[in-house]
């Protein structure tokens, strides 16, 4: 009987030791908690998208408007961006600058009616009609913007953004009266403003992807050119706005 009790006690002790050892091994096998993603740091990336703008032109002769057009300014855009983020809890502040190449182009034609003095045996006012074709191209543009965002999860960011927009605009004006044509070309760099928003998510391994919308307004600028008699000189007022939607990827240096 004594031997049986001793054997039972030894088996119980062995089982307790084995159970404690297994529990200790299980605790040691637990993986460490995954690190929380942090957005603080610099980044750089590329983007591609489309634009849906408007170009409005108003032509004047002797101070009186005689032609007004508004046309779609559409095209494909692509470029790169650099920036820096500061994350505080679920909030993010950032600065970003980008530069874009653009195929945006618009064209519109309008007619102007006037009179010209013709003298043979007598002098007469003869009605004439001129045709003005306005072609606008936004060849490139860039922005410098602030960003304010909130993290829906540690890896998903929703943000609003706004700041400076600037771009190179080419205007080509063709004015025709009868068989006579005047062609004029202007290039200008305009500064304006932009505002928009987007969403950005982590792809892992320091990469993220974003979808972004921006509205840009380059303001109104004026130019003048030699037309065709009796419409000369001609003043031109141009206003360019743009809407862009683009997708992009960023690599974060942290």
Itemize the secondary structure elements and their pairings.
Elements: H1 2-29, E1 41-61, E2 64-88, E3 91-119, E4 123-153, E5 156-177, E6 180-204, E7 207-225, E8 234-253
Describe the structure.
The structure is a single chain. The protein has about 250 residues and is mainly beta. The chain has two domains: about 1-30; about 40-254, Porin. It has one helix and eight strands; from the N terminus they run αββββββββ. Strands 1-2-3-4-5-6-7-8 form an eight-stranded antiparallel β-barrel. It is rod-shaped and about 110 Å long.
Tell me the total number of β-strands. Answer: 8
Largest sheet: 8 strands, antiparallel, barrel
Instruction: Report the order of strands and helices.
Output: HEEEEEEEE
- Looking across the biggest beta sheet, what order are the strands in? 1-2-3-4-5-6-7-8
Q: Which shape, going by the Cα principal axes?
A: rod-shaped
- Label the structural class: mainly beta
Level of helix content?
A: 10-25%
CATH architecture of the largest domain: Beta Barrel
Give unreliable regions as ranges.
3-7
Helical stretch tally: 1
Q: What is the CATH class designation of the largest domain?
A: Mainly Beta
Count of domains:
2
Report the β-strand fraction as a percent range: over 45%
Q: Output mean pLDDT.
A: 85
